[in-house]
Amino acid sequence: MPIKIPKDLPAYQTLVNERVFVISDERANHQDIRPLKVAIVNLMPTTVVTEIQLLRLLGNTPLQVDITFLRMKSHESRNAPPGHLERFYIDFEHILSERFDGLIVTGAPVEMMPFEAVDYWNELTAVFDFSKKNVWSTLHICWGAQAGLYHHYGIPKTLLEEKVFGVFPHRINDRHLALFRGFDDEFLAPQSRHTESDRDAIAATPALCIQSESADVGVFIVTAEQGREIYVTGHLEYDPLTLDQEYRRDRSKGLPIAIPKNYYPNNNPDAAPVVLWRAHAHLFFSNWINYVYQETPYNFVMVSGGQDL
């Protein structure tokens, strides 16, 4: 079954053209099944592009997934198309009585700022607190992972001497986790960040488990609460040209930016990059959705525990 999104959402036609399984509200209402409810806090400046990236991966599943987009009321977006957030997103305060099978918190272009200096920090931490009792499994991505680790466990972030930028090999520390079912011993994933969460602090926190990391760029995936919390430092959801667009954007602004590593053939920015992470991206999100489906009670009443990922 497909993802359920409004038919007039810009991502809808794009995904249909790609033959991603999507379904409109009208058709979904005629199906007598319990869909998975997944909320997405989209903090990325590329609002519509990020929607497409995530929905493309969430649509690769036999389950019906009902999507709710959340916005930060305390933040005024300058990049979303006019009226887009008002039409397709809802404020956090409107879901306080609801429960979700899954929640995704994206990255955000605020990693150079102290967490508390982000204008929507208090609202985002309220979402994090809400997720502890009202969401079965929360997937935090890039800055969203750093923010979640800091809020829940006090894990600090540190500024890197050079931006981690490119496509890097990662290894799995526990191959028996359902999250990595079907993964190769080594897999590639895009990274794009100026900061990192302190590995020593993560390793010293009993509640946290480093599940995947890279000799080149450090910690990649951390879990807690037996898979109820997942922290991903990179961007498996990225499109083929996302790193290219970031590189050219920064160059045009005169910002110091190196050519993304392991990305262009022969390290030539004029050559089209070859995607080497797409299969594992689909596999990761499918495994997560399957885990959520298997573990969330049919009538979602929050209970403690659950089986390991």
Q: Could you characterize the architecture of this molecule?
A:
- The protein is of the alpha/beta class.
- The protein has a domain at 3-159 and 194-238 and 282-295: 3-Layer(aba) Sandwich (Rossmann fold), CATH 3.40.50.880.
- Helix content is 28%, strand content 26%.
- It is built from 9 helices and 12 strands.
- It has helices at 10-17, 25-28, 47-58, 84-88, 121-134, 143-153, 199-203, 242-252, 278-295; strands at 3-4, 22-23, 36-41, 65-71, 89-91, 100-105, 135-141, 157-172, 186-197, 208-214, 218-224, 229-232.
- Strands 1, 2, 3, 4, 5, 6, 7, 8, 9, 10, 11 and 12 form a 12-stranded mixed sheet that branches.
- Strand 3 (36-41), helix 3 (47-58) and strand 4 (65-71) form a beta-alpha-beta unit.
- Helix 1 (10-17) crosses helix 3.
- The longest helix is centred in the last third of the chain and has 18 residues, at 278-295.
- The two termini are 23 Å apart.
